[in-house]
Prior knowledge:
This protein is an alpha+beta fold. It has a single domain, classed as Spore Coat Polysaccharide Biosynthesis Protein SpsA, Chain A (Alpha-Beta Complex), CATH 3.90.550. The protein contains 6 helices and 5 strands. The longest helix is centred in the middle third of the chain and has 14 residues, at 52-65.
Amino acid sequence: xxxxxxxxxxxxxxxxxxxxxxxxxxxxxxxxxxxxxxxxxxxxxxxxxxxxxxxxxxxxxxxxxxxxxxxxxxxxxxxxxxxxxxxxxxxxxxxxxxxxxxxxxxxxxxxxxxxxxxxxxxxxxxxxxxxxxxxxxxxxxxxxx
Length: 145
């Protein structure tokens, strides 16, 4: 993956303490953000079917409303990737309670916006061969095959 990122000019970072869990990877990532960055996505690699329009919509709403967190929602359910204001970075870097990022974000529910999106991909977590098959079928239906 690294050569592809480098070729595209996309910055990347490595979490040397990956054995401490996913939250340590998030902390490593936010430390490397550009100081001019206003918000960042938490986009797990196993949720690959999020539509570009969903990303654009979240950015537009966050830029207008300046919410601490913008969650994409489909049929009333929150999905991925939430867009998180960089104002929360100090909390991300110092949080050490059980539950990791989910627990931290729940502390800011009162400052979060739920953004309705017509995108079932925000809920499609691909962790098993069965999930992968479902995703392939979803793509085939979406593309009209």
